[in-house]
Write a structure and sequence with these properties.
Blueprint: E1 5-16, E2 19-30, E3 34-38, H1 45-53, E4 60-65, E5 71-74, H2 86-92, H3 101-109, H4 123-135, E6 141-145, H5 153-165, E7 169-173, H6 177-183, E8 186-191, E9 194-198, H7 205-235, H8 246-261, E10 282-293, E11 296-307, E12 311-315, H9 322-329, E13 337-342, E14 348-351, H10 364-369, E15 375-378, E16 381-384, H11 385-391, H12 408-420, E17 426-430, H13 438-450, E18 454-458, H14 462-468, E19 471-475, E20 481-485, H15 488-493, H16 503-511, H17 532-559, H18 564-567, H19 569-605
Length: 606
């Protein structure tokens, strides 16, 4: 039996400067809901959360909250002024009857000393204190805007478990795909002012979204064809026709109006790294390096070799020493013992965590140009700053916008732009994923895959590490760091990550024994000639793969119908099941084709 909603937004309209941000947006929240809001930076996710919280007045529409319902909101940039310590701040947010010790417990789990003064906190510490304050009273509705930002992997795993155990309805915004997958039960997609809901978890969202966009493109193509056909009729001489044909002319004008008013999907960022001269085969070689600060041991007896083209992720809890290792590997910091050798031809570009290092009153264009001109030199050629801004989804009207007025996602894109326009063959990214929307993360991932240089990456985004990293340097306690092949999940499967409070660790380690760092793949056994079975596979697999790709497109189109689930649940489930089966079969056949093709090439070269 469906639970009645405790909060309802209907036909919400909100405009800024005459430009509509939300048009007819709606959302319903029931007890126990786990709703994630997704959409591009600037689509209105944070604004929607604030409307749900009752913090923003909208231009039109209705907001209903069941009487007695408690709502708590986590802002991206919390204000702790007026409170002496973080404990004072969190306890002041407790409802009557809630155990005051809960504030101390949450602060401890989030790695904050409750006696810390609020005036000396970093941006990340303020966010963690605000998260504790929002969660502490166990409200009926909990609204979280990027809750995993500035949390390390153990804290993210703890937060997931804490939120799953709460009875609160949770509406949240996050860029962390793994967090979205673990927590969400419904998805609300904010796109071009509208809010579309999928009553399934995030794992099924992207296929559903892509199906909708493909359907829109097909409808737009058909409309363009119809307009072209009517224009051909008109050009043949409508003035000589009878009066009744004026109705057809009016219909043509209506088609043009419809086409003009259609809202196109927002453009993607166009990230490309300006590559410097090619570095040597060995970019960095560290041998038995150690580092301590006072009595605190950070790194002991660690060795690694980073080769050209490697994408190396560094993972560990906050304070373990990830940034310290990064600085030693890049030559910024000398080890107490051991040696680090860097290639002589390194051109390094850095995106650090210091998004607050730029002056808040600096304009967007000045941050890109240095404030001396209106051009940026890219690949030795001057480009107008507006052109570079467009690549990173900024409009020309934002050129003079001060950094303090940019959203968190916009600041993230700005820092990426500053790093990526510099020529480099070594890219150093410290927490690059914070505040970036999912589509921009996809573009960043593709850019890193195409980048010919080497990447050193610090991140707490598990999914991003799995997609990008070719190896992971992981903290294993007491100054010990181990180099593992693969991404985050591969590290767990090899027995790494004992410092994590993550159920994935025990699951992965129970399935596979610990492996030695960077194991070398076994040499494939050479065959004298292709078997009949392999020859047959080479002939038939391309056709089978093409047929499966067509089948997947058909199923995606079926699932793109937003009414299918409510209209015919069985058909939706069958199509979803068939899609999963087709994708698995496609992956299997592609792997088999690749195996046989590599074997064929090997035999030809023998």
């Amino acid at each position: 039996m469906a639970t009645p909603p405790i909060l309802i937004l209907t036909d919400v309209l909100l405009s800024f400067g005459g430009n509509p941000l939300l048009e007819g947006a709606a959302i319903q929240v029931s007890t126990g809901d786990r709703i994630c809001l997704v959409g591009r930076n600037g689509s209105g996710k944070s604004t929607m959360l604030k409307i749900v919280a009752g913090m923003i007045e909208f231009d039109a529409g209705d907001r209903f909250v069941q009487p007695g319902t408690t709502v708590r909101y986590l802002a991206q940039e919390p204000d702790l002024s007026g409170y002496e310590t973080v404990l004072d701040y969190v306890q002041e947010g407790l409802d009557e009857g809630v155990d005051p010790f809960r504030a101390s417990y949450l602060l401890g789990e989030l790695g904050l000393d409750e006696t810390l003064g609020t005036k000396t906190l970093s941006g990340g510490e303020k966010r963690r204190a605000a998260l504790a304050r929002a969660i502490a009273p166990k409200p009926d509705i909990l609204l979280l805007d990027e809750p995993t930002n500035h949390l390390d992997l153990p804290a993210i795993a703890w937060l997931e478990a804490e939120l799953k155990a709460m009875r609160s309805a949770i509406v949240f915004v996050s860029h962390d795909r793994r967090f979205l997958s673990h927590l969400s039960k419904s998805v609300v997609w904010l796109d071009r002012g509208a809010a579309r809901r999928l009553d399934r978890g995030f794992d099924e969202f992207e296929d559903w979204r892509d199906g909708i966009l493909e359907q829109e493109m097909e409808e737009r193509r058909k409309l363009d064809q119809k307009i072209a056909s009517e224009m051909e009729w008109k050009n043949k001489g409508v003035t000589a026709r009878r009066k009744r044909n004026m109705g057809r002319l009016r219909a043509l004008m209506d088609l043009r109006t419809e086409r003009k008013e259609q809202k196109h999907a927002t453009a993607s960022a166009k990230m490309s790294q300006v590559e410097g001269q090619q570095a040597g085969r060995k970019v960095i070689e560290a041998y038995k390096i150690s580092k301590s600060f006072g009595d605190t041991l950070i790194v002991e007896d660690f060795s690694t070799v980073v080769k050209r083209g490697d994408r190396v992720g560094l993972v560990g809890p906050n304070g373990a020493g990830k940034t310290t290792i990064l600085k030693m590997l890049t030559g910024e910091l000398k080890p107490d013992a051991g040696t680090v050798k860097n290639a002589k031809t390194i051109d390094m570009a850095v995106m650090d965590q210091g998004r607050e290092s730029l002056h808040r009153d600096t304009s967007l264009s000045a941050a890109l140009t240095g404030g001396t001109s209106d051009t940026v030199v890219v690949n030795g050629q001057p480009r107008h700053v507006h052109s570079v801004m467009k690549d990173f989804l900024f409009s020309p009207s934002q050129a003079r916008t001060p950094i303090k007025d940019l959203s968190g996602g916009e600041r993230g894109r700005l820092m990426l732009a500053r790093a990526l326009v510099k020529p480099s063959n070594l890219l150093v990214l410290d927490e690059p994923t914070n505040d970036l929307d999912l589509e921009t993360l996809d573009v960043l991932q593709e850019m890193l895959a195409d980048y010919q240089g080497t990447v050193l990456l610090v991140s707490h985004d598990r999914d991003f590490l799995d997609r990008v990293a070719t190896s992971v340097i992981a903290y294993e306690g007491k100054g010990r760091w181990v180099d593992y092949a693969g991404g985050y999940s591969d590290m767990l499967a090899q027995g790494g990550g004992a410092w994590l409070k993550d159920e994935d660790v025990s699951k992965a380690s129970s399935k596979k024994p610990a492996a030695k760092p960077k194991p070398k793949p076994a040499e494939p056994k050479k065959s004298v000639k292709l078997s009949y079975k392999d020859k047959y596979a080479l002939e038939t697999l391309p056709g089978e793969i093409a047929a499966l790709e067509d089948r997947i497109k058909e199923l995606v189109a079926v699932l793109a119908d937003p009414t299918l689930y409510t209209r015919d649940t069985d058909a939706f489930r069958k199509a979803s099941s068939d899609l999963d089966t087709a994708k698995a079969e496609l992956a299997e056949k592609e792997d088999e084709w690749l195996r046989v093709e590599m074997l064929r090439e090997e035999l030809e070269q023998a």
